[in-house]
Amino acid sequence: QVQLQQSGPGLVKPSQTLSLTCVISGDSVSSNSAAWNWIRQSPSRGLEWLGRTYYRSKWYNDYAVSVKSRITINPDTSKNQFSLQLNSMTPEDTAMYYCARTSRGYFDFWGQGTLVTVSS
Amino acid sequence: DIQMTQSPSSLSASVGDRVTITCRASQSITSSLNWYQQKPGKAPNLLIYAASSLQSGVPSRFSGSGSGTDFTLTISSLQPEDFATYYCQQGYSLPRTFGQGTKVEIK
């Protein structure tokens, strides 16, 4: 059974960088059939896909246009995890953040979520 | 981006009722449509993938249908544990996009 365990701060100051980590068990971040995603959810924006990283003989990343200039998703094969960095945070980035695995376009396993508040 | 529109936004139903939720895509997504259930304080949980395939462990009272732009999630006999919010999501192209949700409440 795949399990995703998230960690990271729940409070970020405006203009600072959000850093979250998702540790994978039961699968590999280097899997040739899965992709590893970050999604956020807020009352104003609903469920919003932010981006993904995946391995198909080499590493690839895809990002949502809305955050493309501020986001980095990195795999860490030594720890079997992947991370989210989102720069220049504003109150509009306040949301519940989830990591999730995709297999053939659907999100079949999710992390527990991290509520991130952007406030000074 | 492909826009996903669900209807209704909310509904009230009784235990034992048959419930239908619809999802419309702004362009054809073939059968690349997935449904999730979300309960308060929890992550979404995959129910149906590829429009009509039941995810392992999901009760058979849940079913999905449709292709192209119009899709349906049906709960054949609503159970107390089914009161939740339901989301559709297209897996056809990037960015992955979700519907706004349908909240199923107790009548």
Give keywords.
heterodimer; A: 120 residues; mainly beta; 7-stranded mixed beta sheet; 4-stranded antiparallel beta sheet; 0% helix; globular; B: 107 residues; 11 strands
Major sheet attributes of chain A: 7 strands, mixed
Q: How many whole angstroms does the radius of gyration of chain A measure?
A: 14 Å
The helix content of chain B is under 10%
The amount of beta strand of chain B, in percent, is over 45%
What distance separates the N and C termini of chain B?
Answer: 36 Å
Structural class of chain A: mainly beta
Mean pLDDT of chain A: 97
Largest interface, Cβ cutoff 8 Å: A-B, 20 and 22 residues
Q: How would you spell out the order of helices and strands of chain A?
A: EEEEEEEEEEE
Order of helices and strands of chain B: EEEEEEEEEEE
Mean pLDDT of chain B: 97
Query: What is the overall shape of chain A?
Result: globular
Uncertain runs of chain A = none
Description:
By secondary structure, chain A is mostly beta strands. Chain A is 0% helix and 57% strand. In chain A, strands 2, 4, 5, 6, 9, 10 and 11 form a 7-stranded mixed beta sheet that branches. Chain A has a 4-stranded antiparallel beta sheet with strand order 1-3-8-7, with no helix packed on it. Chain B has strands spanning 4-7, 10-13, 19-25, 33-38, 45-49, 53-54, 62-67, 70-75, 85-90, 97-98, 102-106. The radius of gyration of chain B is 13 Å and the shape is globular. The termini of chain B are far apart. The chains are: A mainly beta (120), B mainly beta (107).
What is the strand and helix layout of this fold?
The complex is a heterodimer of chains A (120) and B (107).
Chain A (H helix, E strand, L loop, with lengths): L2 E5 L3 E2 L5 E8 L9 E8 L3 E10 L3 E5 L7 E6 L4 E6 L8 E9 L2 E5 L3 E5 L2
Parallel strand pairs in A: 2-11
Antiparallel strand pairs in A: 1-3, 3-8, 4-5, 4-9, 5-6, 7-8, 9-10, 9-11
Chain B lengths: L3 E4 L2 E4 L5 E7 L7 E6 L6 E5 L3 E2 L7 E6 L2 E6 L9 E6 L6 E2 L3 E5 L1
Parallel strand pairs in B: 2-11
Antiparallel strand pairs in B: 1-3, 3-8, 4-5, 4-9, 5-6, 7-8, 9-10, 9-11
